[in-house]
Every structure is written in C-alpha cells, then in structure tokens.
Amino acid sequence: MLDYVIPLCLVLMSLSVLLTVVRLIKGPDLPDRVLALDTLYINALALIVLFGIWLGSGLFFEAALLIAVMGFVSTVAVAKYLLRGDIIE
Amino acid sequence: MMARCWPHPLLSLFLLATWLLLVNDLGIGHWLLGGFLGWAIPQLTQAFWVRTPRVSRPLKLVGFLLMVVGDIAVANLQVARLILSPTRRLHPAFVEVPMELDDELALTILASVITLTPGTVSADLSDDRRTLLVHGLDVGDEAELAASIKSRYEAPLKEIFACSTT
Amino acid sequence: MPLNPWIEALVALFLVAGSLFALIGAIGLYRLPDFFTRLHAPTKATTLGVGGMVIASMIYFSARNGSLSLHELLITLFLFITAPVSAHVLAKAAMQQKLRLHDSTRGKPWQQ
C-alpha cells in the first residue's frame, strides 16, 4: 500500500512547493517573499522525511534536522535585516 | 546546596530527554552522558540567565501543553476550512489583549501558544508589557476573542508560574 | 521484514494527512488577500503537515526495525518552538514596512 501512497504524497508536496514558489516570485513585498522562503524550507523538510520513508533509510533524519535549524536562523536573520537594516547590532 | 547543584531542574530534564532522543538509544551509558550534560550545561550557562523562571506547578504545565497540542490539531481543521472558503467572507482584525502576566518566560509561552493555535497570530507586545496585539484571521467579536484567550490560556499560565497579579 | 497491514495503513493515513495539511498551507499562502492573513497559513498548517510526516516516519521505523524510534520527535519539537518566533519577527517587519491591509480588516497595527 505504501508503494502507492508515497508517490501520491510526493505529488501533493510538490504541488505545495510549486504554489509557494509562485508566491515567492509574485511577492508583492519583501516580507511576503521571506514568508514564502520560510514555507519552502518547511516543505523541503517534509519532502526529505517522506523520501527517507520511501527509501527506508534513517540517514535522512540528520539532514532534516539540519535544514530545520538553518532555515529558522536564516528566516530570523532576514526578517531582522528588514526590521533594523542590520543583522548584528 | 540543592539550588546550586541543580539551578534549573526542568532544563536539566529537557536536556537529558533531548540527548536521549538525539542518539536514539536508551542504553545506560547514554543515560549517564545525558545526565552529565543536563548537569553541566546549566552550570556553564548560569551567568547568562538573568533570573531563574519559577515553575510552581510542573504537573499542571504538562496538562496545559497536552491541552494546547489538542487545540492545535482540532482548530487547524477550522483554518483549513477558512482557507478553502471564499476570501470575501473573511473578517480579519487586529485585537488588543490586555496582559496580566509579568514573567518573561510565561509571556513568551503565551505569545507562542497564541500563534500556534489557529486563527490568531501574536504580532506585537507593547513596551510596558501590558498589551498584546493579536491578529485574527476571522474574528466575529473582538471582545469575545480577547476573553477566550485570557480564560483559556492566560489563566492556567498564571497559576503555573505563580505570577503576582498586578 | 514485511509490515503488518494495519500499521502500514496507519502510516499511510498520517502521510496523507500531513501532505494535505502542507498543501492547504501552501494554498492559503497562494490565495489569501494580504500579508497578515497569509501569515496564518504556513505557520500552522505547514507545521502540522511536517508533524504528520514525522509521526508516520516514527511509526514506520519503529515497526520495521522492531525497536522504538523516537528521534524524529525532535524535528517537531524544534518546529513548534521556532514557528511562532519566525511568525512574530515577520509580523513585526511587516508592520514596520506598513504593508497594505485587506479592506475588511478591523483595528489597526501599531506604529513602530
């Protein structure tokens, strides 16, 4: 059963990544783009976990955790740049 | 003595649990190593803590977190319905909620919980920490939203952290 | 080791639920009218989407290896702690830039 369900989920996740990329291109403002990037990294996280289940490999866990950490830090850094015009004060 | 060895008991427990999850192994060696880390890291970071948050009712904290997880799951369906229905029918609003909490950690938890529970995002806290600005996705009645936030999330947090109600 | 069909069904259920939530979050991001309403969709729906995936992965690896695998919980925990923070910072940035609000919005953001 998983052989059918996982490709279906991959399609659903790819659709959501596409919609997010459309928002990333459309904007209209900088915070919208940052929000789209934030959503994009969370979606990538879900895709990696899904891919790990598909291959039956636990190795992808570390990659997912690293993406979560880096994505959060970069979102906050860019948002802080928008807010103050500077990252490290 | 107790307070000097274990300045932050909850933080130590949290570090131990994180270590055990990270290595994904419940062997006795990892319990010992995790216990050591849970003891050493609060000691080393002692200088950075401005003041120790006091949790007077840890059991109630667990109950509160479980309730929040339940709320997140149930009310997400509500937001899903709002997103898929026509956008004309949305009534977004900025609502000011007066705060009675004065503890930094409690305020952080409250703001995070408000953001995680669907339909509301906490946008800003006033400089005197007395008012929280909340953005609601679909608000019927502003006063009702503020009252429900206060009774459902603020009241239990006030009990857990034993805040003085000033 | 072949999986018990019931466990497989449970994993499939969580996977589908997770990806549906992530998709709904992305749809919200795509079609809601202004920034502050768009902020609602990804911070919650997407976090829950990843949560569903992670639970599925937990059940799958626990059943397949015959030993409890809980470390995926760390991802969910981390996301649940960080998602409100990034939403809050983004909301502050948006208020400072005085983004356009949807016409039916009541109340006003504060002046920064």
Automatic annotation (TrEMBL), chain A:
Primary site of residence: membrane
One MF term in the entry's GO annotations: sodium:proton antiporter activity
Compartments (UniProt record): Cell membrane
One cellular-component annotation, GO: plasma membrane
Keywords, ordered alphabetically: Antiport, Cell membrane, Ion transport, Membrane, Transmembrane, Transmembrane helix, Transport
Family annotation (Pfam families): MrpF_PhaF
Residue ranges of the TM segments: 6-25, 37-57, 63-83
Lipid bilayer topology: Multi-pass membrane protein
InterPro entries linked: MrpF/PhaF-like
Family: Belongs to the CPA3 antiporters (TC 2.A.63) subunit F family.
Name under which the protein is recorded: Multicomponent K+:H+ antiporter subunit F
Organism: Pseudomonas linyingensis
TrEMBL record, chain B:
Localization, UniProt: Cell membrane
Keyword Membrane attributed: yes
GO molecular function: monoatomic cation transmembrane transporter activity
One GO term describing the cellular component: plasma membrane
Organism domain of life: Bacteria
Transmembrane parts of this sequence: 64-84
DNA-binding listed as a keyword: no
Membrane topology: Multi-pass membrane protein
InterPro entries reported for this sequence: Cation_antiport_E
Main location per the UniProt record: membrane
Signal peptide limits: none
PANTHER family found in the cross-reference section: NA(+)/H(+) ANTIPORTER SUBUNIT E1, NA(+)_H(+) ANTIPORTER SUBUNIT E1
Protein family: Belongs to the CPA3 antiporters (TC 2.A.63) subunit E family.
UniProt-listed NCBIfam families: PRK08965.1-2
Protein name (Swiss-Prot/TrEMBL): Multicomponent K+:H+ antiporter subunit E
Organism: Pseudomonas linyingensis
From TrEMBL, chain C:
Presence of the UniProt keyword Disulfide bond in the record: no
Pfam families: PhaG_MnhG_YufB (PF03334)
Organism superkingdom: Bacteria
Residue spans crossing the bilayer: 6-30, 42-61, 73-91
GO function terms (MF aspect): sodium:proton antiporter activity
Ranges in coiled-coil conformation: none
InterPro entries reported in the protein's UniProt record: PhaG_MnhG_YufB (IPR005133)
Alphabetized UniProt keyword annotations: Membrane, Transmembrane, Transmembrane helix
Tagged with keyword Secreted: no
Record NCBIfam families: CPA3_mnhG_phaG, PRK12674.1-5
Protein's name in the database: Multicomponent K+:H+ antiporter subunit G
